[in-house]
Design a protein that fits this description.
The structure holds 2 protein chains of 2 kinds. Chain A is built from 11 helices and 10 strands. Chain A is an alpha/beta fold. Chain B has a 7-stranded mixed sheet, with helices on both faces. In chain B, strands 10-12-11-14-15 form a 5-stranded mixed sheet, with helices on both faces. Classes of the chains: A alpha/beta, B alpha/beta. Strand 2 of chain A pairs parallel with strand 9 of chain B.
Chain lengths: ~270, ~375
């Protein structure tokens, strides 16, 4: 199938701004699913609220566009009731780690087989550029006109700490490896978290002196490095990208099936 | 004693009824006084291949049952006071997306943490208006275990029929009172299954295009029809829209499908209404007190009757108006400051004959609380 076979063309044009990274992520997700040759009827996309969440409408799968922060809670209901379905939850940074932070850490703890894709643009875009849990200290936003005094989360370390069995980071500049990482995350049997750094030229870029989307992509190129690279040793400020954790752990729906077997014997 | 006669508390009756109605998925969070529902379902659901999950909070419990319901499973959550407040946004999502779901709220004293182990009926208006935005919703209640069983089955049936969340508004007294329950035989109470679309694979399925009768046949997530579900105002495809005509039609559909079937949804019970000059109107555990007063005063020859409401929303205004016609005084018995009182006043032509007998101190409303009001109305002093 071609990429366009996975989208709902009648709902285009999309709402994303020119230069936005979210379309690149959607393209990456589609290509990963295409490579894996998954049946469209077997895939459920569950999103929250924000620019990221609109990905739901454009994809020709079962799509559930929910409420702010709760995508993983809805996704848990879908997955536990139909474990054979592939459930993917694309979320924004505020969506996944501010209002929805509790659901993310608990989904990670349960190790339920859902792929969480964090479309991290370091800002609340839909509401016009307020600082998010990944806006850096000293950066600017419409609610941080004097500069941000909050310290950002490290999503990767947070997900690892919460017990996620697959954790990765990539960027919209590194499309080829992004596709590979999404493929691996979907294939991983357990909870997977993929942080994808995604440019928001309209709000984050404008507030933080990035001249264009291209400048932001170059920033991702120049300020990230593969995990454990020599560059990282020389320049500790570089952000690492790649797969940080990929481990086998009992999966929640499998565990519940064991409970069902135990319970039905007792009856 | 027969196998189907049990001695249980109200929360157990609710569990038995939910399983009878075909409950397949439950998500919840511990909270008093509804916790026994979750405890029992964690034991019972896996025995029939169903799923139970204790979520990280109240919000996610409501969200999880909506997700499960979209895959075709009958789903329920249970909570009390503060938890009901927390679920409201997701309840609105179920309203907007027309996802069948049953929400049990075992009411306790509020506001805030209030009186966690005491009975109350303070959430009547919250059941109707707790979530933001114009909408309609179904809310049912009962005063004893046998009726709690029946209305719980009913709640699932109505939820599937009208594709709406249904609130079961019980209270601590009903939930924790142990009494006899006769579990109906299979098929004794009709159990309604979800209306599924007959549209074949490859043919366009419009998830949000109501049929002529207002109903929307569903297609399970994971099935042959892929469609979008959103809490945004949406068109017949389930795709977001701000088109004023489409939004107008959607809003009217959401309200009309429930308000237009008020008569069909209304459940009431009547005691000694035929010649009643003094009419008590009550619901939930308060109706137990109201019934006691009614039967007690009847023994003394007083013309008193009781109308027990089991459907609170949509409010059965026409029926209430009809029953109040010949009464010289109407007393609403409830454990709040008059949440149903005002509905009754609105429903009838002579609202000045409607009075309130209530209790809000955490104690269960006593017959004397009602009798005092009757004495005052009769000019005999409390």
């Amino acid at each position: 199938m071609a990429v366009k076979d996975y989208i709902r063309e009648k709902f285009f044009p999309h709402i994303w701004c020119p230069g936005c990274g979210h379309g690149i992520i959607m393209g990456g997700l589609i290509r990963a699913i295409e490579t894996l040759q998954k049946e469209k009827n077997d895939i459920v996309i569950v999103s929250g609220i924000g620019c990221s969440s609109r990905i739901c409408g454009y994809l020709d799968f079962h799509t559930l566009h929910t409420i702010h922060g709760r995508a993983l809670a809805f996704a848990t209901g879908v997955k536990l009731s139909r474990p054979e379905l592939t459930v993917i939850a694309p979320m924004g940074d505020g969506d996944a780690f501010a209002i929805g932070g509790n659901h993310l850490i608990h989904a990670a703890r349960r190790n339920i087989d859902i792929t969480a894709i964090i479309m991290n643009n370091n800002i609340y875009g839909m509401t016009g550029g307020q600082y998010s849990p990944s806006t850096g200290y000293g950066e600017f936003a419409t609610t941080a006109p004097y500069s941000n005094i909050d310290h950002p989360f490290d999503f990767v370390n947070l997900a690892i700490g919460a017990g996620a069995s697959f954790v990765a980071r990539t960027t919209t500049y590194h499309v080829t490896s992004m596709i590979k990482i999404i493929e691996k995350a979907i294939m991983h049997h357990g909870f997977s978290v993929v942080e994808i750094m995604s440019q928001c030229p309209t709000y984050f870029g404008r507030k933080n002196k990035f001249a264009s989307a291209v400048e932001m992509l170059k920033y991702y190129r120049d300020h990230t490095t593969p995990i454990g690279s020599k560059d990282k040793k020389n320049n500790p400020d570089l952000i690492e990208r790649g797969i940080f954790i990929e481990k086998e752990m009992p999966e929640y729906c499998d565990e519940y099936d064991k409970i069902i077997k135990m319970a039905s014997k007792g009856e | 004693m027969k196998d189907n006669v049990v001695f249980v508390q109200g929360n157990e009756a609710i569990v038995e009824a939910a399983l009878y109605a075909g409950l397949n998925f439950f998500a919840g969070y511990p909270i008093t006084p509804s916790t026994e529902i979750a405890e029992l379902l964690s034991l019972r659901l896996p025995q029939k291949g169903g799923k139970f999950i204790q979520m990280e909070d109240e919000l996610s419990s409501m969200c999880a049952i909506i997700g499960a319901s979209l895959t075709g499973k009958k789903s329920m959550t249970a909570t009390s006071g503060p938890g009901f407040s927390l679920k409201q946004e997701a309840i609105g999502f179920a309203v907007m997306t027309e996802t069948p779901s049953v929400i049990v709220n075992v009411q306790r004293g509020g506001p805030s943490t209030g009186l966690p182990t005491s009975g109350s009926q303070g959430d009547v208006m919250q059941a109707k208006w707790g979530t933001h935005g114009e909408h309609a919703i179904i809310t049912m209640t009962a005063s004893n275990n046998q009726d709690a069983f029946a209305v719980t089955v009913d709640a699932f049936n109505l939820s599937e029929t009208f594709r709406t969340p249904v609130i079961l508004l019980f209270d601590e007294v009903v939930a924790h009172t142990r009494e006899r329950l006769v579990i109906p035989k299979p098929d004794e109470i009709k159990v309604i299954q979800r209306l599924k679309t007959s549209v074949k694979e490859g043919t366009d399925y419009h998830p949000y295009l109501p049929r002529e009768d207002g109903r929307l046949p569903m297609s399970d997530f994971g099935g042959v029809h892929r469609y979008n579900v959103t809490g945004l105002a949406h068109d017949m495809w389930g795709f977001p829209t701000t088109d004023s005509t489409t939004v107008y039609n959607l809003m009217h559909h959401l309200v009309d499908k429930i308000q237009g079937h008020t008569k069909e949804i209304a459940r009431t019970k009547e005691y000694y209404l035929d010649d009643a000059e003094c009419l008590l109107i009550s619901y939930g555990s308060s109706a137990r007190t109201a019934l006691h007063v009614t039967e007690d005063r009847r023994l003394r020859g007083e013309k008193i009757g009781l109308l027990e409401l089991q459907t609170l929303w949509p409010f059965p205004a026409e029926e209430v108006k009809k029953k109040c016609l010949n009464a010289s005084c109407v007393i609403v018995v409830e454990m709040n400051m008059g949440q149903i009182l005002h509905e009754v006043k609105k429903a009838i032509d002579d609202p000045e004959k409607v009075f309130l007998a209530n209790q809000i101190n955490g104690s269960f409303i006593k017959p004397s609380d009602v009798l005092n009001i009757i004495r005052i109305i009769q000019g005999r002093g409390a």
